[in-house]
Amino acid sequence: MPDTYKIAIVGAASLRGKELNDSLGDSPFGSADFLLMDDEAALGQLESVGDEVTFIQRIEPSSFAKVDFAFFAGSQEVTRKHWHSAHKAGASIIDLSYALESEPKVLVRAPWVQDAQREEANGATEAAPDLQTPAVVPAHPAALALALLLLRAKSVAGVSAASATVLEPASEYGRAALDELHQQTVSLLSFQSLPKDIYDAQVAFNVLPSLGESAKAHLGASEARIRHHYDLLSAGHLPEIAIQLLHAPVFHGYGISLSLTLDEPVSLEHLEAGLNGEHVDVVLGDSDPPSNLSSAGQDDILVRARTAGGSELATRRFWIWAALDNLKLTATNALACAQELRRLRPHGKVQ
Q1: What's the per-residue H, E or C state across the chain?
Q2: 75 in the same domain as 32
Q3: Does 1 have pLDDT greater than 90?
């Protein structure tokens, strides 16, 4: 890296912000100058990025002066309030809050998937970000995982049908959701009334397809986002897939149950070999199965495949179970997006 970049993390005290802090230290951006910012409640907190320790500062319009990359990892309200200041200052914007996904010319990106598709199609896919792109949104981790698995599966054989049940953790909705799940668990075990400010429903010891009418977390919106992001990553080149989202009573990590019907029979070993590769770690049947616990802190999506009927013979129908650390995958995809934007500012200077 020829020059030292200046990187701002807005929402540095959030779950996504903290995971991004940890991931940046081990990335090609590890030698950058970091500026951590958040709302009033987090001011003055000490955080570390790589080998440096710094304070979380107040967000001001002038805070983005000479910033090369601005990661928005906090609430959507904070992103909407401050992203124009970062854009005006010339920063490349990576929005982990999803607040900007509907803004004109903003792109949803997962470079691992889109680069592979571009190579497969000899460049005949939608263009990467350019100087007219105001911001990029790293694709939802579940959409990224599904796109990567379907991309690998179709390299083995054509996919005639696919459907997925996605189990979502509390951490996808931030620290308040984690706290409420914990408080509900403790309250149930001590026979006390349940706090329901975030979910407006009992989520502890429960699996739900929807939440209460007054919930601050919106399961329907999350399911729609996963579908929309998958469609954007597919760009018409990946198999269609039916997706159902359920809220699981776990703190961290997605679980995905994926059903595949292929155009022709293949062996389990052939499918496993096709799925395994960069960012996907296939766990064989003689090892412990993937879980939200075993995936914690892992860069890769952990996967186990089996035939739908349990037979060892070649078949068209398979079940795939995948587990992934949602915060880690979001952070690593955000860094991949930043690497993609880096080519637009090759000397680390404000454009």
Answers
A1: CCCCCEEEEECCCCHHHHHHHHHHHCCCCCCCEEEEEECHHHCCCEEEECCEEEEEEECCHHHHCCCCEEEECCCHHHHHHHHHHHHHCCCEEEECCCCCCCCCCCEEECHHHHHHHHHHCCCCCCCCCCCCCCCEEECCHHHHHHHHHHHHHHHHCCEEEEEEEEEECHHHHCHHHHHHHHHHHHHHHCCCCCCCCCCCCCCCCCCECCCCCCCCCCHHHHHHHHHHHHHHHHCCCCCCCEEEEEECCCCCCEEEEEEEEEEEEECHHHHHHHHCECCEEECCCCCCCCCCCCCCCCCCEEEEEEECCCCCCCEEEEEEEEEECHHHHHHHHHHHHHHHHHCCCCCCCCC
A2: yes
A3: no
Prediction pTM value: 0.92
148 and 134 together in one domain: no
Structure tokens at 278: 């960069």
Provide Rg for the chain, Cα atoms.
21
Q: Are 96 and 138 in contact (CB under 8 A)?
A: yes
Q: Are 133 and 162 part of one and the same domain?
A: no
The answer to whether 32 and 6 are in contact (CB under 8 A) is yes
pLDDT in tens, 129-165: 888 899 999 999 999 999 999 999 999 999 999 999 9
Q: Do residues 151 and 237 both lie within one domain? A: yes
Half-sphere exposure of 282 (CA within 13 A, CB side): 19
- 86 with 60, same domain: the answer is yes
Q: How far apart are CA 107 and CA 337, in angstroms?
A: 10
- Integer distance in angstroms from the first to the last C-alpha of the chain? 17
Q: Is residue 75 part of a domain?
A: yes
- Shared domain for 134 and 180, answered yes or no, is no
Phi, psi of 350 (to 5 degrees): -65, 135
Number of domains in the chain: 2
Asked if residue 189 and residue 109 are part of one domain, the reply reads no
If 0-12 CB within 10 Å is exposed, 13-18 middle and 19+ buried, where does residue 104 land? exposed
Containing domain of residue 266, as a range?
142-326
Instruction: Name which of 196-205, 286-295, 326-335 the model is least confident about.
Output: 286-295
